Amino acid sequence: MNLIVKEANVNWEIRSPEVRVIDADGKQVGILAVKEAIRLAEEQGLDLVEVAPGASPPVCRVMNYGKYKYQQNKRSQEAKKHQTVIHVKEVKVRPRTEEHDYQFKLRHILRFLEEGNRVKVSLLFRGREIAHPEFGREMLARIQESVKEKAVVEQTPRMEGRIMVMILSPKG
Q1: Can you list the domains of the chain with their CATH numbers?
Q2: What is the largest distance, in Å, between two alpha-carbon atoms of the chain?
Q3: Three-class SS string for the chain?
Q4: pLDDT averages per 10-residue partition of the chain, 172 residues
Q5: Of 24, 30, 91, 162, which is most buried by a Cβ count within 10 Å?
């Protein structure tokens, strides 16, 4: 798995005429011309790497560029390892969903919330059912009431064409 790490300018790729140089030990050398800074780095068998291109003048460090890239890659992999991905799971219901089906879908919603996922509850109106959106609101209010200990309503029920949508997030 190859992670993208922003490339830093190295040696002759540095465009600024003068740079602030930090040596391999972390001590400031001062502001030098780029040619002189590169010569200083090459004498030590290292590279001149631009670490803060936005500064005035840009800050460059004398270091082993290969090792620097390796450490940056490791750091980004470590950061990615500690991220948690939250998915949005969808449960579809109808205004006249029967009791058994309602309980079945409610169990799914609770399971998704316990796994730490957000849940999008979509209520589809077919045919003339659209004339009675209050049935849909009652169904979503019932779901909301049933999951209030485990979920927070992130988005209140709203109409999107013939579909009424509500988004739930896990508490805590």
Answers
A1: 11-79 (3.10.20.80), 88-170 (3.30.110.10)
A2: 82
A3: CCCCCCCCCEHHHCCCCEEEEECCCCCEEEEEEHHHHHHHHHHCCCEEEEEECCCCCCEEEEECHHHHHHHHHHHHHHHHHCCCCCCEEEEEECCCCCHHHHHHHHHHHHHHHHCCCEEEEEEECCHHHHHCHHHHHHHHHHHHHHCCCCEEEEEEEEEECCEEEEEEEECC
A4: 60 85 86 88 88 85 88 87 82 93 95 92 92 91 92 91 93 80
A5: 91
